[in-house]
Give the backbone structure.
Amino acid sequence: AQKITQTQPGMFVQEKEAVTLDCTYDTSDQSYGLFWYKQPSSGEMIFLIYQGSYDEQNATEGRYSLNFQKARKSANLVISASQLGDSAMYFCGEYEKLVFGKGTKLTVNP
Amino acid sequence: DSGVTQTPKHLITATGQRVTLRCSPRSGDLSVYWYQQSLDQGLQFLIQYYNGEERAKGNILERFSAQQFPDLHSELNLSSLELGDSALYFCASSVAPSSLQETQYFGPGTRLLVL
């Protein structure tokens, strides 16, 4: 069964610094898609970024990039130049089986 | 604002009762997904509908059922409610049923409290 693991329950970062949120996945499928969502304290789920298993380049969306290492089965989210508004829960997931990790709570300190 | 609407925002009910959660997808989206988010189980996929037909099933209990209507709105019915059903229930929508590049847009959720 597909499994998504986020090993960091909580992370702290200083404003304007970069931070990496870890995500590993376990699948035997050849074709799959990985994504990240952000959930602020208000509760809504906001789509951030997507990476397909056949994409040769790492996905980027503004300050978000996905460090995709297929051999290691990792899809880490990198947030550059952190802002106070980045404080939220971040969820990694897989599209085919619609499985999410437990999430990482990011706190950005001023 | 994702364009996905969910009603009600909050719901408080008692054990043994039945409730219906409603979702309207983004304009043009044919696929609707339901998720449950609880503190102990995290975010779990329940069920997906595409253009009125059930497309995929996740960890949905037999006490729960859903449907998608011709106007594409969807309802999630929860019956014989238990304390453990207290959670945030999300609806999400996407254009296509199972494209690996299909972004799901989430609604604001319905917070259910079972007392």
Observations:
- The interface with chain B takes residues 31-33, 35, 37, 43-47, 50, 52-53, 91, 93, 95-103 of chain A (CB under 8 Å).
- Chain A has a mean pLDDT of 94.
- Residues 12 and 101 of chain A are 19 Å apart (CA to CA).
